[in-house]
Amino acid sequence: MSGRDLDAAGITEPRLRESYARCRELNAAHGKTYYLATLLLPPGKRPYVHALYGFARYADEIVDDLASTLSDEQKAQWLTGWGERFLDDLDRGHSTDPVCAAVVDTVTRWRIPRAHFEAFLTSMAMDLTVREYQTYDDLYQYVYGSAAVIGLQMVPILEPSDPQAYDHAMELGVAFQLANFIRDVAEDLDRGRVYLPLRELAEHGVTRADLERRELTPALRAALAAQVSRVRVLEERSRPGIAMLHPSSQPCIEAARVLYCGIVDAVAAIDYQVFQRRARVSMSRRLAVAGPAWLRAVRARRRFGPGHVRGLVDNA
Hints:
This protein is mainly alpha-helical. The protein folds into 2 domains: 1-114, Orthogonal Bundle (Farnesyl Diphosphate Synthase); 130-306, Farnesyl Diphosphate Synthase (Orthogonal Bundle), CATH 1.10.600.10. Helix content is 68%, strand content 0%. The protein has helices at residues 3-8, 14-30, 32-38, 46-64, 72-92, 100-110, 114-126, 136-158, 164-183, 185-190, 198-202, 208-212, 218-238, 250-269, 283-304. It starts with a helix and ends in a 12-residue tail after the last helix.
C-alpha cells in the first residue's frame, strides 16, 4: 500500500501500517475487480476498505484454502478460535493479529457495529456444515452474513446522507454474491456445495444430481437464466443507494456495481456454459468502466472534497 494512502488516512503506527498493507495485498491478489473499484475512492478511504476485504478474505481462506488438509471439524475449531479472538480484540479496541489489527482499527474509527462481524463469522461456519439450500429464504440466511453485512460494514466509510443507503447496500452486496454463485457452480460443486436454491431449480426440472453431471441442458440453462434475473432485479433496486453516498464515494460503488454485476452478463455471453469455462468480465470492459469513473472521481473530490478520511471518531 502506498504511504500516501496511509498518511492520508492518518495511520501512522508502524505495525498498524503493516497490517493495512497486508490487507491491501489480500485485496489486490484475490479481489481484482473489487480492488480496481477501490482505487476510485479518495486515498484516505482506501486502507479501510482494504481492511474489510482482508478480514473477509482471510476468513474465507480458513474455510476453503489455508486449511485444505484439515477436516471440517478442525477447520471449524480454527475458524471459531480466530473469530473469538477477533471479537475479543474488537471489545478491547486493539489487535496484534497481522490482519485483524487493521480491521479493529477500521471498526473503531468508523463505528461499525460488532453484530455485522458476528453475522459474517456465523455464515462462514455454515460453509463447513451446510451443503445445499432448499429455498431462497434458506439461502438468504447464509447470504445475509456472507454478503449483505459486507455492504453494511462499508456504508459508514462511504458516508451516507440517507439511512436508506444501508438497505440498498445490502441489496447490492447480495447481488454480488449471487452473481458469484452463478459463475462458480462448478467450483462450488468441487467443494461439495450448491448455492442455487434447489426448489427453484426443481421448478425447471433440474436436480442436484443434474448439476453434478456437469452437463448444460436446456432446463439448466433456463434455471440459470432465472437466477441471473434475480441478480439484475437486486442490482436495479440497489442503484438509488449510490446517490445517497458522499459524492467522492459514488464513482467507486457505481463502477463496482457495473463490473461485479456484469459477471452475470458474462455468464449469459458464454450461453451459460459454466461447466466448461469461467465467465469473466474482460479487461477491456474493466478499463472502459474504470477510465470514465476515474475522471468522475477526480472531479468529485475537487468539487466536494474527500469527506472524512480519518474516521468518524477522529473527525467527531
